[in-house]
Design brief:
Elements lengths: L8 E3 L1 E3 L2 E3 L6 E6 L4 E7 L3 H18 L4 H17 L1 H11 L4 H19 L1 H4 L4 E6 L2 E9 L2 E5 L7 H12 L3 E5 L6 H12 L7 E3 L4 H9 L5 E5 L2 H13 L3 E5 L4 E5 L5 H13 L9 E7 L3 H11 L21 H16 L3 E4 L16 E4 L6 H4 L6 E7 L2 H10 L2 E2 L1 E5 L3 H10 L4 E4 L15 E2 L2 E2 L6 H7 L1 E9 L17
Parallel strand pairs: 1-5, 8-9, 8-11, 9-10, 11-12, 13-14, 13-19, 14-17, 16-17, 19-20
Antiparallel strand pairs: 2-3, 4-5, 6-7, 7-23, 12-22, 15-16, 18-21
Helix pairs in contact: 1-8, 2-4, 2-7, 3-4, 4-6, 10-11
The structure holds nicotinamide-adenine-dinucleotide.
Nicotinamide-adenine-dinucleotide (NAD) binds next to helix 8.
Length: 502
């Protein structure tokens, strides 16, 4: 590792509308995964620093909730225009800290902006119901009010999009937001903070506090945080949900995945192979909606494995800053080595290594790994059981639709799945049968558009509401129902009976 000739840049918190150096004395290295160099040192907040940030947020929450809907929408429209204009700059930040190629970073940003589009409609989204004359002289109506101070804890793999899943709706609904981004690629959150300020968001309404477990625990235990949105791995999601709810918070915690693509014998093999390769190796497989298992039904298997394998030699792997490359490095050296370990263990456990990414060599010290294809994988192998989160695609051969469906439904995760077929009846049966939150029919990465909501089932989500879209608005507001009458005081009398609607 070349621990860089130039001094790593400090990456500070964003408090009260400005960059604020940490005081804990603790920091973490931020790497450029394409070179292996340390390019930044991110502050890690102490519990005391989190407490200070929350206290300031509580003060700001009082005024922000009084800002009219029209003004909040206007800020979202301006934020959207700024994000749109600065897509390339933000994408370069993503590439330099995460490693994903520029085109993929632009895709992430586009899907993030969709959530700002949705939040621009907040006056419409927060319209309540009104029942005139629910009883004689009585009207009933509902209003949705913000929760107050809410927090978001986000993963490394989508440093712009996942924060935008949360921020746009939370702020538009009238909440003050504290973001604790991944400490592995924290700079996108500061870029977003700056754009929000330029868009006219009052200082203090959006805070970025960097950190690790210490900061997260402080947020989860703080009595003035009303709700926590989390996206990350399943073990952490489960513990966040438990600790947050124990401390009386509303929590939505999205976890890991193992997404299966079921390919029926009637599928177009070339189309299925194109989809499998795109969805397995895009972003080096570091997507929670990546396809990591292909279930090849019956005699489609041989042709499908050949078609996938034939596409791999031409995939260009290298630094994301070079527009010619299609796949970048993994997030860290440790993660790269862990992913590579699954290729060896699968071979030891009886799988066929059709393409071995470990054989590809790269110049320099970047965290690169070539793409791998494993065939004849069985459900007892580590490569099948664990979320690998890297460019390794497993093919499991199954005799029938029912056998494939059983594997999908027996899996601990239920984030995404896809079926490839030309048979509409089979696809319709699949959408009915599968125990998974997001389903693609001839669509390998079925991330819902922003006016639906995103969420898996089983160990892929802890909580009741999915993220963004209508569920996001529901999560970030509390409903109040008002029963109102304006009677003539002359008719007033005592009545101890339970109020009835007459
Ligand atoms: P991670 O769970 O390691 O980290 C997520 C966040 O939790 C980070 O901000 C991190 O600082 C914090 N964290 C880590 N360890 C913690 C601890 N012990 N206590 C408290 N906080 C802690 O996840 P990651 O490696 O950054 O991201 C990859 C994972 O996220 C994969 O499992 C992927 O499937 C999942 N993911 C899921 C979705 C989804 O929508 N379901 C989306 C993106 C990523």
């Amino acid at each position: 590792m070349t621990d860089t000739m130039t001094k790593p840049a400090p990456i500070n918190h964003w408090l009260g509308g400005k960059l604020t150096p940490g005081t804990s004395g603790r920091s973490a290295k931020v790497f450029n995964p394409a070179t292996g160099e340390v390019q930044g040192l991110v502050d890690l907040a102490s519990r005391a620093e989190v407490d200070t940030a929350v206290a300031a947020a509580v003060q700001t929450a009082r005024s922000w909730r009084t800002v009219p809907l029209s003004r909040r929408a206007e800020i979202m429209f301006r934020f959207r225009a700024l994000l749109d204009a600065r897509r390339d700059d933000l994408a370069r930040i993503l590439t330099s800290e995460h490693g994903k190629v520029h085109a993929d970073a632009l895709g992430e940003i586009a899907r993030g902006i969709e959530n700002v589009d949705f939040a621009c409609g907040i006056p419409n989204l927060l319209k309540g119901g009104y029942s005139e004359g629910a009883s004689t002289g009585v009207d009933v109506y509902s209003i949705q009010q913000p929760l107050g101070v809410v927090a978001g804890i986000t993963p490394f793999n989508f440093p712009a999009m996942v924060p935008l899943w949360m921020i746009a709706n939370a702020l538009a609904c009238g909440n003050v937001f504290i973001l604790k981004p991944s400490e592995k690629d924290p700079s996108a959150s500061l870029f977003i903070a700056d754009l929000l300020q330029q868009a006219g968001l009052p200082d203090g309404v959006f805070t970025v506090i960097h950190g690790d477990k210490e900061a997260v625990d402080a947020l989860l235990e703080h009595p003035d945080i009303a709700a926590v949105s989390f996206v990350g791995s399943t073990p952490i999601a489960r513990s966040i949900y438990q600790k947050g709810t124990e401390h009386g918070k509303r929590v939505q915690a999205l976890g890991g995945a193992k997404n299966h693509m079921l390919v029926l014998p009637d599928a177009d093999v070339n189309m299925a192979a194109d989809a499998a390769v795109s969805a397995a190796y895009g972003s080096a497989g570091e997507r929670c909606m990546a396809i990591s298992v292909v279930l090849a039904v019956g005699d489609v298997a041989d042709g499908l494995v050949d078609a996938i394998a034939s596409r791999l030699p031409s995939l260009k792997v290298g630094p994301g800053s070079d527009a010619a490359n299609e796949m970048g490095p993994l997030i860290s050296r440790e993660h790269r080595d862990r992913v590579a370990g699954y290729i060896g263990s699968a071979a030891d456990q009886g799988a066929t290594v059709v393409v071995d990414g470990r054989a590809q060599t790269f110049d320099g010290n970047g965290f690169f790994l070539g793409v791998s294809l494993l065939d004849h994988v069985t459900p007892d192998m580590d490569a099948y059981r664990d979320e690998i989160f890297g460019p390794v695609l497993c093919v499991v051969r199954v005799p029938s639709y029912e056998a494939g469906l059983k594997l999908i439904n027996d899996n601990e995760f239920g984030n995404g799945t896809a079926i490839f077929t030309r048979d509409g009846g089979a696809a319709r049966q699949f959408q009915f049968d599968c125990q998974v939150g997001m389903v693609g029919i001839n669509v390998p990465i079925p991330v819902p558009v922003a006016y639906y909501s995103f969420g898996g089932w089983k160990a892929s989500l802890f909580g009741d509401t999915h993220m963004y879209g209508p569920d996001g608005v529901k999560f970030y507001t509390r409903t109040k129902v008002v029963t109102s009458r304006w009677p003539d005081p002359a008719g007033s009398r005592v009545d101890l009976g339970f109020p009835q609607n007459r």
